[in-house]
Amino acid sequence: MPTETFEFQVEARQLLQLMIHSVYSNKDVFLRELVSNASDALDKLRLAALRDDTLDADTSDLHVEIEIDQDARTLTVRDNGIGMSYDEVGRLIGTIANSGTAAFLEELKEAQDAAGAEKLIGQFGVGFYSGFMVADEMTLVTRRAGESSGTRWTSRGEGTYTLESADDAPQGTAVTLHLKPADPENQLHDYTSVWTVKEIVKRYSDFITWPIRLVPGAGDGEGTSDPETLNSMKALWARARDEVSDDEYHELYKHVSHDWRDPLETIRLQAEGTFEYQALLFLPAHAPHDLFTRDFRRGLQLYVKRVLIMDDCEALLPPYLRFVKGVVDAHDLSLNVSREILQQDRHIRLIQRRLTKKVLSSVKEMKANDADKYGTFWREFGPVLKEGLLGDPDNRDALLAVASFASTHAPDEATTLQQYVERMKDGQDDIYYMTGESRQSIENSPHMEAFRARGVEVLLLTDPVDEVWVDAVGEVEGKRLRSVAKGEIDLDVRDGEEADGEREKQAEAYAGLLGWMKEQLGEDVKDVRLSTRLTVSPACVVSDSHDLTPALENMYRAMGQDVPTAKRILELNPGHLLVQGLNQAYKDREDHAELVETAVLLHGLALLAEGGQPTEPARFVKLVAERLERTL
């Protein structure tokens, strides 16, 4: 059959030129695409041979070959798979513009920068034609299994391609790229370099089922004499559990995570049915130093039929599981799927839900069966896991089930919310907690005095996220989560009438002082009232029930949000001698200036006790110094 020349459609020519001259940042993917096409051809031949035992095809040594000719600057990827007929080459290779090209070109023209262009190219899918990013000319020679004659396709990507018969073509397909001139400033992307080719194959195609062999080529200059298999072909996630050793799992973890330590836990998952995928996940033993930074690289490696598609696929797990490492191998996704498409893909959303539940159930099993391992996990990743209590209401119960917290129940043991509820005192309706920078600072807080005196357990929450999730959760098992530093607290266990009667007497006795102090402290307080939470300290400051705490205000401001400062409530301990003396001095109309100073000092001491500072630190220090001077 004579050589025939065909023209690409106008839109296809424009697209080819954009691809050839694009600023696509990772040109290495061309080799991934060609190797993947070769692997698919081998899969198809194996299936065809199983279905048709009369097929005249050699299936004794199915493989992919890569050959480099440094002298001619060519790179060839060949397989002995199913191959293509003359008509198939024209239909499959010659019609690049069979769907969506016009719309794609319009979007590409509107892209204002290189990054925008790259994203659009990724959405379209480069496939076979990605070779033109690195080659001036491409030649394809193929013969379909069972046929006697082959086909040669050639194009320079300039609008035309030729087709002719190739009677000497072996079974399968060979794609030869006539590479562009070498760039002396970018030797890492010299595709005639054996080292470069090995690195690309190892990175993207290591787990492909078929052997990928580097065969001796002209002028490779690196001593290649015998075919060398470049890929391991060991997709651990596709092998039976009893066929893989812990050492092999650990090596894969170190490969995907760049961590030199062994993982804490290995999690396997295999989904079958209408949408098939396999996952091999790892829980690290230590939190990376940059886990809470904006630049932290999260996500799993995404494979499609054992071909690496994306290194850090964020769409596969929610942000609060960003520490999980591993691989997901999906069978029904496109090789050229982009990050933007993944975020909208229904299958990806299904995978994310399933993987999330699997990780949380594995942590729950670890908690039940291995206290030491769970303790390590929660110490390293508890703070980030609790972020899910805010952003993932669907899995909130599962997260609460695996969470544990420090409490006043035992100094060295963490507790679950369920255990807390089981230990609650008769008549107690709330789960009490307090947030702070450390356990020590919380335990020394005046807010804890009544709880300590009456033996009421309090959760001690010291992670920044604790300030937020408790309000989002609200209640657990019908019990309200309640801060000991907010609102009014009544732990009086005496008979109701007796307690009410005493409170009425105290309110009457201190009414004048409370109103006067509120007037004197002015804008520094929202209110002044008697406290039921203090047993030792003279005073404390608390937030109103629905106000933000100072720590939460600071957190929002650090995120750039404009949050008004909420006024605090000053509570006085009517059982403290200092408060009693101040009340008597107020009734006796003693020196007014002295009384005002004492009120300011009481407020400042309450602020210091919770880790804050007085409104006017210099004035506060001056008043303390003068009082100390008068006592000498």
Strand order of the largest sheet: 1-6-5-4-7-3-2-8-9
Classification by helices and strands: alpha+beta
Estimate what percentage of residues fall within beta strands: 15-25%
Under CATH, the homologous superfamily of the largest domain reads Histidine kinase-like ATPase, C-terminal domain
CATH C-level of the largest domain? Alpha Beta
What does this structure look like?
This protein has 632 residues and is of the alpha+beta class. It has four domains: 4-229, Heat Shock Protein 90 (2-Layer Sandwich); 236-376, Ribosomal Protein S5, domain 2, CATH 3.30.230; 405-483, 3-Layer(aba) Sandwich (Rossmann fold); 496-631, Heat shock protein 90, C-terminal domain (Four Helix Bundle (Hemerythrin (Met), subunit A)). The chain is built from 21 helices and 23 strands. Strands 1-6-5-4-7-3-2-8-9 form a nine-stranded mixed beta sheet. Strand 2 and strand 3 (74-79) form a beta hairpin. Helix 4 (101-110) runs antiparallel to helix 5 and helix 9 (346-369) runs parallel beside helix 12. It is elongated, with a radius of gyration of 36 Å. The N and C termini lie far apart (116 Å). Mean pLDDT is 85; it is low at 97-101 and 112-126.
What are the salient characteristics of this protein?
single chain; 632 residues; alpha+beta; Heat Shock Protein 90; Ribosomal Protein S5, domain 2; Rossmann fold; 4 domains; nine-stranded mixed β-sheet; six-stranded mixed β-sheet; 21 helices; 23 strands; 20% strand
